[in-house]
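thought: fold this chain, then report.
action: predict
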Amino acid sequence: MKAASPENAAGGDVAAVVTLLPPEVVYAQTPSPTTTTTTPAAAVQGRRSLEEPAMLRGTRKRKGSFPEHILSTMFFSKKTSGDAAAATSELSGAPPPPPPPMPPAQHTPSCYLHAPSVQCIASSITSARIADAATENRRSPSRVDRFRRLLDEPIVNIVQLRALCWKGIPPEVRPGAWKLLLGYTPANSEYREETLVRKRREYHEQVVTMWNSSDWSTEERGLLRQIRLDLPRTWPNTPVFHEPMVVKILERVLFLWASRHAAAGYVQGINDVSTPLLLVLLSEHFHFSYVDLHHLEQVRLLNATDQIWYTVEADFYWCMCKLLGGIQDNYLFSQSGVQQALEKMNKLVLEVDEPLAAHLESQNVDFLLFGFRWINCLLLREIPLPLVIRMWDTYLSEENCRGFRVLHVYVCAAFLLSWSETLRCVKLLFSLYKPR
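observation:
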């Protein structure tokens, strides 16, 4: 179940972020100097023992960073829905949005019984709040100018770029900013074009050597067969991912990445993780709206030149290598990255909301049941794609993929905790079938 989403949540202030998340999660509300924020003692105790993103540390005093002492209020605020909506309204200048409707029980598929927050998250993002966020974005042309001035410098200051990207990136400059944040393009503009030409040539040499080869092993044929089974299930209701050229790009890139990274190989979930990158890189050449993906004119893709597809595919491959290189532990046979993330999320929930942790344990609900997909697919199957792209703006603003390894765990815990009261009232059906 997906909700409509704004084209861009990269507004000039934090309100654009707050507007897009469930009202119980005051994701980026920074307390004013004259306001005292009450942080639960359990949350303070819990966060000191956990690794935190660099942008959340109190030692970072630059503009756009979030000090350590508000970590709990960002993700684990105990404010009510009305308080959060009022805070959003105060930041954005828009009238308070109506409270989100609860999803009808009869529309909840049984396969989601172990993760009811999936529907709640999607239902909480109402069209009114989406419109407010998009309107706030359009009111800040100076933010686009700030990005353009920074990106046009002879040597881009990556530290300043990360701080600016924390609050979101305007779609006009997002492809270039992501390439810089991922480390694909150099900060020095003098070497940028030369680097792109060289990397694109190297990729297509791999295509000739590995993809166009007639001597494929049994393992390689099985790998391609698995990729082709998964691609039709990748965003089935989004036509752009099922255009013939886009499907061919996904096939080749996923196959070549898995072949060159045998320790991880290809597993289900990597196909989902690749889609935001591909969509952003496509938007650099086709200039479409992230909101209107269902009505993207096919003629614009069909009329694309071979040079455009050549460029998009090569850039997509190298950006994938940079991204997956930082979270490759999630896709190893041992899945050590996923296990560590789930353990950390379990500790967060236990420290912040012990009654919920006790209830889940009493119902025999292991975090692996719902959290595995949240970590493995980076919530791409739970929330709309445009919102995922906005979240990735912030994730990428952290060095060395820490946003995907550390900050993402806090986001998953916040999603779960925001529905604590509802979950504590639910007794899951499979708890009735305890082994005797």
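thought: worth noting. The CA atoms of residues 250 and 353 lie 41 Å apart.
final: tokens above.
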